[in-house]
Specification:
The chain is of the alpha+beta class. It has a single domain (about 5-170), classed as Gcn5-related N-acetyltransferase (GNAT) (Aminopeptidase, 3-Layer(aba) Sandwich), CATH 3.40.630.30. About 35% of the residues lie in helices and about 35% in strands. Strands 6-7-5-4-3-2-1-8 form an eight-stranded mixed beta sheet, with helices on both faces. Strand 2 (about 50-55) and strand 3 (about 60-70) form a beta hairpin. The longest helix is centred in the last third of the chain and has 17 residues, at about 155-175. It starts with 5 loop residues before the first strand and ends with a strand. The chain binds coenzyme A (COA).
Amino acid sequence: MEKEKISLKILPMEKCQIDDVLKIEEEAYGDHHWSKDSFYGELSNDLAHYYSALDPDGNLIGYAGSWRILDEAHITTIAVKPNLMRKKIGEALLNQILKDCYKNEVKYLTLEVRVSNKPAISLYEKYGFKSLGTRKGYYQNNNEDALIMWTENIFWDKFKLLYQQNFEKLKEDINIQ
Ligand SMILES: CC(C)(COP(=O)(O)OP(=O)(O)OC[C@H]1O[C@@H](n2cnc3c(N)ncnc32)[C@H](O)[C@@H]1OP(=O)(O)O)[C@@H](O)C(=O)NCCC(=O)NCCS
């Protein structure tokens, strides 16, 4: 029997969703989560681009954001409602950020991730991000190091091919409306 595909919509985040974002934020990041004011600030920042993933009933199930500055984008966050992890929602959100980068001729992406965060590191590696080094003690709550990850030029054939292959596979696994 064919596995049931989950359906989602990815739309620009709205300020009225911030309370729901905070619920996922607290669950997904624990002690070291952003405040409500940080999200209000982000949604008022012209450089910032945030997305919400919504289930067919309009419930928030994940979100992601980036800052775009000239030809670079910095991924600031990607989080998925914990009971819905490993269903490709995080990947769909990363895919949306990359799609925007292609559309806006952004060539390079960077991000920081906790060195212990294997799920996130695997997600980024799946899309061709590489480690560039660490920032020592970057996370103040436990003094953990951040891994700095980076893409080469995403318009290079090698990266584009990986993106397209992942995107085709993703569309087989979930319905992105
Ligand atoms: C990281 C996160 C966004 C991934 O979202 P998700 O929807 O659960 O992941 P997906 O189902 O889309 O997985 C896509 C890929 O990510 C990697 N991945 C995700 N979870 C993983 C896990 N638990 N172990 C290993 N790899 C994992 C795999 O490469 C996976 O591809 P595959 O399914 O072909 O193996 C999610 O774990 C999360 O919200 N974590 C808490 C917040 C956080 O740490 N965000 C990152 C900050 S930099």
